[in-house]
Amino acid sequence: MTTPPESGPTLDAASPLPPDIEAADEPTKVPLGIEDWLTVLIMGALALITFANVLVRYFTDSSFAWTEEFSVFLMIMLALVAGSAAGARDRHIRIEYFAESGSMARRRRLAQFGALMIAALFGLIAALSVRMVWDDYRFEETSPGIGVPAWWYSIWLPIVSLAIALRAIGLFVRRGRKHKNNDQQDAAE
After folding, report:
1. Three-point CA angle 183, 185, 186, nearest 5°
2. Does pLDDT of 178 surpass 80?
3. Is there a contact between 62 and 68 (Cβ–Cβ < 8 Å)?
4. 142 three-class SS
5. I need a labelling partner for 182 at 20 to 30 A (CA). Which of 135, 153, 167, 171 fits?
6. What is Dmax (Cα atoms) for the chain?
7. pLDDT digits (tens, 9 = 90+) for 115-161
8. From the CB of residue 91, how many other CB atoms can be counted at a distance below 10 Å?
9. Which secondary-structure segment (H or E) carries 170?
10. DSSP codes joined into one string, 23-75
11. Is a pLDDT exceeding 80 seen at residue 63?
């Protein structure tokens, strides 16, 4: 007979939740509902834009030229917002064989390392994309589809990248606190 893992049953993003376990988010200072609502709003806007374009194409044999440009922008924003939510919930892509094996201390260290790498990557993206936004603004670049200033689209990359980096730092801190709390509980027992 095998011994259960130290923390009880582990679930990954692909595992269905058993009925007796509720899906609860860890408490955070900035509510995770922000990303959830942004996801809903972006998906709704994508659906409305696409539906309107389909109707116009069906009835008039022409299309709204601006819908493709906005749809691409909204899909990129959706990926970034979902990345922020995944990072904050510790549901980002990882190799489960390494992340879920070993002692609890090793798992915590790997979770903290992953959060730190996410923060570093998106902090770097935020810093480098500020230059891109400045260049779009300074050289008065326009979008290819409808000719609006390109910085209207590119300004969101450093903002959302910084949000993802901050969410990852929050996860790093929460994993460190969890580590300290578990060590204190182990010492008390």
Report:
1. 65
2. no
3. no
4. strand
5. 167
6. 74
7. 999 999 999 999 999 999 999 999 999 998 889 999 999 999 999 99
8. 12
9. helix 156-188
10. --PPP-SS-THHHHHHHHHHHHHHHHHHHHHHHHHHHHS---THHHHHHHHHH
11. no
